From TrEMBL:
It is an enzyme of class 4 (lyase). Gene3D superfamilies: Fumarase/aspartase (Central domain), Fumarase/aspartase (N-terminal domain). Belongs to the PAL/histidase family. It catalyses: L-histidine = trans-urocanate + NH4(+). Keywords: Histidine metabolism, Lyase. The gene is hutH. One of its GO terms (molecular function) is histidine ammonia-lyase activity. PROSITE patterns: PAL_HISTIDASE (PS00488). It is found in: Cytoplasm. Pathway: Amino-acid degradation; L-histidine degradation into L-glutamate; N-formimidoyl-L-glutamate from L-histidine: step 1/3. InterPro entries: Aromatic_Lyase, Fumarase/histidase_N, HutH, L-Aspartase-like, Phe/His_NH3-lyase_AS. This is Histidine ammonia-lyase.
Length: 523
């Protein structure tokens, strides 16, 4: 899996936690640009105040879940004070049970920032030194090794967060800022940090949250913002290259069905196709095309629906950012109460929704590419856009690559959140599987980027083949950006590096930037 197509975002040197919810930009700055972290003084005061309540309950002979009891199905056992340090340490060790490939560094840093944000609310009952130690890991670029499998998305992302907490107590392995695999204790010592000896409630507070799935949702939405613009660029290039009409994107037609995302996508495509000599060339009385195919005509409806779904997901993410997810939790009036706020269902649902729209955006893109390759439908271009069809195969297999990815994306669109496997001796008898929803969405975002890149590569070739007619300024700028890395039409060449080059341009944001250099910012 790859990182963001927004890799050129500006670096923020320090993100301050504890003065309200962290923002999407904060998450991206820490996760992708290695921003340091500072915890606000007022947050540290709130943390210290809530800890007083936890310590009072720890001294009380009445059992309190998470403070003086076992966990999950073992919550009925009262733990005496002399065993509570061992209780917290054992919790972290036993829950750090992940398996599989290492999770990407940006995901781990995102979940760490979000857990730190909850700790800094003062609602979890940890000591200030735990908050400082957690912030120190992020600032020093120490990234705990977290594994692909282990979270059921309820009681939050237990295993991934436990691997982070393991680092905090000086155990397990980490990656240093330069990527070196190092024992946690050595990395802490090298950066002047010290392992934390966890006290009552602290182990539970470190692992009981939706931070992993939420971090991946925020990163995915950041990526999708860029990809939705790229989808409009690619669709406009295909409409132009396939001699389609821009009239169907008129604002008054879109207003008859007032979905905001649809209006934004149509407005983008209208601007992208403006002043195109290719479009103008077939606005004649002898044009026999009555209506364009759905993959051209309905591009704003599909991309618009994706935009509106992303906006719903953004609302859910912002609510989750404003949350203090833990169990039990220290309330504002000082009570310590059990609750179900750790359940990942709200986040899991929108992660699955996004996987659906990502698959459909890729599907319609692949259909447009396929039209370019069929001489019965491409309005006068060579079969497969080949230089000498039969001798050359042109972009025939580029479309196969798209089709293989789209097929995979359809499988990834099957929701994880409809599944639930009971755990912890039936105490945790309904789980969200939100972590799984997040993992497959990351793979889907990568797949969509590749599919759109192939469409851009193919449509750029088609636009060149329309010469001497010229494309509009915006699409011409995109073609020029592609041509800096990939030669124009000609006999067959080794195609994989050319696809890879355009995928890199898509990831970097260069394709959208090229279009915007001609017509200004896209919606």
């Amino acid at each position: 899996m790859t990182s963001s197509p927004n890799s050129a975002l500006p670096t923020t040197s320090v993100v301050t936690v504890g003065v309200g919810p962290v923002s999407f930009a904060d998450v991206v700055a820490v996760a992708r640009h290695d921003a340091a972290v500072h915890v606000a003084d007022e947050a540290m005061t709130a943390v210290a105040e809530s800890r007083v309540r936890i310590e009072a309950l720890a001294a009380d002979p009445t059992p309190v879940y998470g403070v003086s009891t076992g966990f999950g199905a073992l919550a009925t056992r009262h733990i005496p004070p002399e065993l509570r340090t061992q209780l917290q340490r054992s919790l972290i060790r036993s829950h750090a049970a992940g398996s599989g490939a290492e999770v990407e560094r940006e995901v781990v840093r995102a979940l760490m920032l979000l857990r730190l944000s909850t700790l800094a609310t003062g609602r979890t009952g940890v000591r200030p030194e735990v908050v400082r130690a957690y912030a120190g890991l992020l600032t020093e670029g120490i990234t705990p090794v977290v594994y692909e499998y282990g979270s059921l998305g309820c009681s939050g992302d237990l295993a991934p967060l436990a691997h982070v907490a393991l680092t905090l107590i000086g155990e397990g392995q980490v990656r240093t800022r330069d990527g070196e695999l190092t024992p946690a204790a050595e990395a802490l010592a090298a950066h002047g940090l010290h392992p934390v000896v966890l006290a009552e409630k602290e182990g539970l507070a470190l692992i009981n949250g939706t931070d992993g799935m939420l971090g991946q949702l925020i990163l995915a939405l950041t990526d999708l913002d860029a990809l939705l613009k790229l989808a409009d660029v690619a669709a406009a290039m295909s409409v132009e290259g396939l001699l389609g009409t821009e009239r169907v994107f008129a604002a008054d037609l879109q207003a008859l069905r007032p979905h905001p995302g649809q209006a934004a996508a149509a407005a983008n495509m209208t601007r992208l196709l403006a002043d195109s000599a290719i479009v103008a060339s077939h606005k004649t009385d002898d044009c026999t095309v009555v209506q364009d195919a759905y993959s051209l005509r309905c591009a704003p409806q599909v991309a618009g629906g994706a935009r509106d779904t992303a906006e719903h997901a953004r609302t859910v993410a912002q609510r989750e950012l404003a949350s203090a997810v833990d169990n039990p939790v220290v309330t504002l009036d000082g009570r310590v109460e059990s609750n179900g706020n750790f359940h990942g269902a709200p986040v899991a649902y929108v992660l699955d929704f996004l996987a659906i729209v990502v698959a459909d955006l890729a599907s319609i893109s692949e259909r447009r590419t396929d039209r370019f390759l069929d001489p019965a439908r491409n309005h006068g271009l060579n079969a497969f856009l080949a230089d000498d069809p039969g001798v050359d195969s042109g972009h025939m297999i580029a479309q196969y690559t798209q089709a293989g990815i789209v097929s995979e994306l359809k499988r990834l669109a099957a929701p994880a959140s409809v599944d639930s496997i009971p755990s912890s001796a039936m105490q945790e008898d309904h789980v969200s599987m939100g972590w799984s929803s997040a993992r497959k969405l990351r793979r889907a975002i990568d797949g969509l980027t590749r599919v759109l890149a192939v469409e851009v590569l193919t449509s750029a070739r088609a636009l060149d083949l329309r010469a001497p007619l010229t494309p509009g300024p915006a699409t011409a700028a995109v073609v020029a950006a592609v041509r800096e890395h990939v030669p124009g039409p000609g006999p067959d060449r080794y195609l994989a590096p050319e696809i890879a080059a355009v995928v890199d341009l898509a990831h970097s944001g260069a394709l959208v930037a090229a279009a915007e250099s001609a017509i200004g910012a896209l919606s």
